[in-house]
Specification:
The protein is an alpha+beta fold and 255 residues long. The chain contains four helices and ten strands, in the order H-E-E-E-E-E-H-H-E-H-E-E-E-E.
Length: 255
């Protein structure tokens, strides 16, 4: 739910712009410290959320790519804040450290874009993030170790009969630009509502040498799908049965 706040639009411009910059900078310091800089030159533009009604921006994508926070309407106001940076060449060729869209009513950041590929974050993802280092920026060995730990924890918690220590993991990276591919129907159907098509996810397969002894149907205990932004496991396929995928975020959802 949106928090009760004095709308930004009711403030004097100088006070409002100062607060908008402070909100954006605080988010960078907390969750994206790599992109925080003190010596920025801010630009602020007022807008609204009507752009979310124009589905030609991402034609053919499901409705969940346009979900807004509770109580927010497309006609509500927002502010687009760009933090320009004189030493922009240090930022990989972009003239800003961040671009943020902030909700007028609640002062919440609806989305933020950082000057690096696959770095768009929206409200739903920002609520779930804990300020952790992005998996894709890590060395592969460290990244894979974290992903395997997340996957094994899912089994220990939800499917303990399939948890085994002596597994051989395999990690693949992909993104959510999967619509229209027949074999990905289930993966798209269970996509979290906060991701962009270009966002990354990881497929972790936990191969198990003794799968026949344990009477599994496949040579793995499970295949787990994990969102890069939030490290959230959202989908699982079990090695013990042949009935498709299981939704981890909404396990009781009826098809």
């Amino acid at each position: 739910m949106l928090l009760a706040q004095e709308p930004l639009s009711s403030m004097p411009k100088e006070q409002r712009d100062s607060l908008l910059v402070e909100i954006t900078q605080n988010l960078l310091k907390e969750k994206f410290p790599k992109w925080y800089r003190k010596d920025i030159i801010p630009g602020v533009v007022q807008g609204d959320f009507m752009f979310l009604k124009h589905k030609w921006l991402q034609e053919g994508w499901p409705d969940y790519f346009y979900i807004l926070p509770d109580s927010l309407k497309p006609e509500d106001l927002c502010y687009h804040v760009t933090l320009y940076y004189e030493k922009w060449r240090d930022m990989g060729g972009h003239r800003f450290t961040a671009e943020a869209t902030i909700i007028d009513k609640s002062h919440e950041v609806y989305r933020i874009y950082l000057p690096e590929p696959n770095r768009g974050f929206r409200w739903h993802a920002l609520q779930k993030m804990k300020g952790e280092e992005l998996l894709s920026s890590m060395p592969k060995q460290k990244r894979d170790s974290i992903l395997v730990e997340i996957s094994q924890n899912v089994l220990k918690e939800k499917y303990p009969e399939l948890y085994h220590k002596d597994i051989e993991p395999n990690v693949e990276q992909s993104d959510f630009r999967l619509k229209g591919l027949e074999w990905t129907d289930d993966i798209v159907k269970y996509t979290p509502d906060y991701v962009y098509p270009e966002d990354l996810f990881y497929i972790v397969t936990l191969y198990y040498e003794k799968w026949r002894e344990k009477k599994l149907e496949y040579p793995f205990t499970a295949v787990i799908y994990i969102v890069e932004k939030t490290r959230e496991p959202y989908l699982i396929r079990l090695g013990s049965e042949n009935n498709g995928y299981h939704d981890l975020l909404n396990p009781n959802r009826k098809e």
